[in-house]
Amino acid sequence: MKGTLKINVDVSMYTSVELLKDLRVINEISKKVIDILQEKGQEARSSVIDKASKNAVSLLLSKKKGKVGSVLSVYLPTNTIEPLHDTVVPTVSSDEDSSVRSVSEDDDTESDSCDSQNSSASSQNQHIFFSM
Questions:
Q1: Chain centroid to CA 18: how far?
Q2: Which residues contact 68 (CB under 8 A, 6 or more apart)?
Q3: Maximum Cα–Cα distance for the chain, whole Å?
Q4: Lowest mean pLDDT among 75-84, 90-99, 118-127
């Protein structure tokens, strides 16, 4: 299939296709898919993995009656797969930009704090007030 990642999950421990319909079994399949993705340094949303696992079981049920094969193919859309390290969310908000540094005119010392910038500006110009 174009635009999908095929992940083969071992399901040989299940003796019947009917066992795969159980929600706990589908959750186990989803966990195996997550483990395989993590081994590859990738991840996807759990809702996407759960849906793909259910679809794989449904497809297998429609094709086979009776005995389960040893492998279940789960297909994930490639646009839902991300590298593990890209999901880090920065903790600094846009109002608190830590990369902005100020230099006071008095002694050429650097400061990371907006408070020191505001206090030096207000001490030089007494008629300007800063409020947040």
A1: 32
A2: 11, 12, 14, 15, 16, 17, 19, 20, 60
A3: 86
A4: 118-127
Is 91 inside a domain boundary?
no
Distance CA 42, CA 79 (A): 12
Same domain, 52 and 103: no
93 falls within a domain? no
Is the pLDDT confidence value at 4 over 90? yes
Considering its fold, how many domains does the chain have in total? 2
Where residue 58 falls (left for φ over 0; alpha for ψ -120 to 50; beta otherwise) is alpha
- What is the CB-side half-sphere exposure of residue 23 using CA atoms within 13 A? 0
> Which segment of 11-25, 60-74, 117-131 scores lowest on mean pLDDT?
117-131
Q: What is the pLDDT of residue 110?
A: 46
Quote the CA–CA distance of 61 and 16 in Å, as a whole number.
10
pLDDT category at 78 given cuts 50, 70, 90 is very high
Domain that holds residue 70: 4-82
